[in-house]
Structures are given as structure tokens and as C-alpha cells.
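stage 2 :: seqdesign
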């Protein structure tokens, strides 16, 4: 057991590693999107750029939810074990 038989309290902070990973995935998705949309005549590249952006938004959203997951549960918001 942790802390003399008490249950450890979860902190109300997001997990920084997954939050940073979410930002990096979104930034890379935007970078590939703008790179794929450079040539106005290359329609298959436009479709790939749209797909990459959609996938990166979904992955970034999932990572954001994972990083803030502790804040989604109200029963973890109190400091009962001080």
C-alpha cells in the first residue's frame, strides 16, 4: 500500500507526455496536409492530404482524451486522504 495504508490521490493535471504527443501528431498532420496541397493539379495528393489530416485529428483527439482522462471522473476530484 502507498502512503501508510492510504490510497494515492490522483492529481488534477494532464499527463504531459501524451499531451505533447497529441500536439506533435496534430502538427505533423497539418504539415503533411499543407505539403500535399501545394500542387493544385495533383488531385490524388489532395485526397491523401485530406485523409492524413483526418487520421491525425482522430489520433490527436484520442491522445488528448487519454492525457486528460483523470479529469473526466468526478470521484477523483477530492482530497480525502490528507
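stage 2 :: out
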Amino acid at each position: 500500500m502507498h502512503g501508510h495504508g492510504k490510497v494515492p490521490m490522483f492529481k488534477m493535471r494532464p499527463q504531459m507526455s501524451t499531451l505533447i504527443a497529441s500536439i506533435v501528431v496534430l502538427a505533423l498532420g497539418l504539415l503533411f496536409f499543407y505539403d500535399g496541397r501545394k500542387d493544385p493539379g495533383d488531385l490524388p495528393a489532395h485526397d491523401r492530404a485530406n485523409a492524413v489530416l483526418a487520421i491525425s485529428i482522430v489520433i490527436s483527439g484520442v491522445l488528448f482524451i487519454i492525457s486528460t482522462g483523470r479529469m473526466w471522473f468526478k470521484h477523483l476530484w477530492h482530497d480525502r486522504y490528507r
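stage 3 :: structure notes
- The longest helix spans residues 43-67.
- The two ends are 15 Å apart (CA to CA).
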